[in-house]
Amino acid sequence: MRRLGSRGLPVCTLLAVLAVTLPAAALAGVKFTRVASIPGTGGQVYSFVRTSDGRLHLVYPTTVSPQQGITSLSISPSGAIGSATSALSTAWGASIPGLVVTPNGSLEAIYGAVSPLTANSTLWGITSADGGETWSAPVDVRSGPALEAQAYNSPITARLSGADPVLTVPEPGGLVIQSGLGPTATVSEPTTAADDRVTDVDSALDAGTGEVVASWVSLANPGGMLLQGVAPQGQSSQLVPGQSRPELVISGRDQGPGVFAAYTTDGQHVRLLRYGGGTVAVGSLQSVTPAALGTATGPDGRIWVMWGSDNGSLAVTRSSKAVTRFEPIQHLRTKIVTLDRLSGDGRLGPLDLFADEIADTTPILPTGLYHARVLPVLSAAISVKPIKDKKGKVTAHDLTVAVTDAGDAVSGASVTLKGHKKKTDATGHAKISLPGSGGGHAKVTVTAPTYHVLTKKVKL
After folding, report:
1. pLDDT over 80 at 221, yes or no
2. How confident is the model at residue 339 (pLDDT cuts 50, 70, 90)?
3. Average pLDDT, the chain
4. CA distance 201 to 264
5. CA atoms within 13 A on the CB side of 43
6. Which residues contact 288 (CB under 8 A, 6 or more apart)?
7. DSSP strand pairing (174-179 vs 454-459)
8. Residue 53 has pLDDT above 90, yes or no
9. What is the pTM of this model?
10. Residue 319 · residue 346 · CB < 8 Å
11. Domain 24-374 matches domain 379-459 at the CATH topology level
């Protein structure tokens, strides 16, 4: 269910004015691999979380009609997809599960179901202490109030705030929030009476404040896309401007305050909104219509933004540390027929991108969840200064290369030119001196760990 809040906050604080269309970056080696045969639904059908060892863990329904179990798998820090493990029997008919890492490092998946043993309808939790290899028996984790009477039918999201998981549970009466697990947990309904029909719920953690922010799409009249702080206390709801989409995939920064959502007002240009704050222009690609938009957490406070359409084209970019500027937009080409949802995790630097889609593959059209590893891109500004002797003859060239990532200086990058190699300093600059009169053009190559290789021509 979907719905927006009635007490929308004005978007009054401008994060940055960057009304520019960034050039598309050339791409190589971005490959989408099917993770699972999850049917595209236009809503949340999987949950993921990254553990301290760098592994990205996923849980999603195991569909054996008409029942559903839960399957888990992990993706290594290098992007290798592991083997799927059955975490819950299909006899449970589980809802879409949420997933958190508990303070002791264990994984906990929370789902709604009617117990096949006792016919008890409630929220259940299963845990894994070995990275998803094995899972415990289900335990009743609801708080007990009647607000959760129909939790068995709800797609759950889970975010860890402090020591407690915060669950979003869409129900017929609105959005129910449970903080903690078991009888001591607290339950609230932050949405207003007008928000009694919510769908496509997502949630994210504000790392600076510990606040959990929920997003959803309202089916009330007039409806729309909403953001609202829901724990530890309910905050004002905020209407996301622009064209409504079936999914509002939100993300918080890995450090510092802010929860962000991507949107478009004209079906071409993409902007990024901060809950309770302002907006910043991201950019556009003429060949990519933002039919689906998503965000993902990056390192050092950065946010990834991605959007795409059903013509096989996706656009991806990453923000500066202050979330005020963006890298050159990357253009990804896929074999998408239908695109339902974009999300991911970029905390390691590269983006683990998930696309819930149908791929145009002969002789079948395999519906499923697809994964790709996307590297961020660098930018470089190069200045050339000819060195002359007393007679005015050019004897050398001094080159200064300034390497940046969305405007932030990149230190330790390797700059190579005609066999000469230097590292950028703390300000992102590298200086190379080329002897001889030179002339013509030369190729400058810039490399840094976890980034695409950047090459530029410079005239000497």
Report:
1. no
2. confident
3. 86
4. 19
5. 18
6. 307, 308, 309, 313, 314, 315, 331
7. unpaired
8. yes
9. 0.90
10. no
11. no
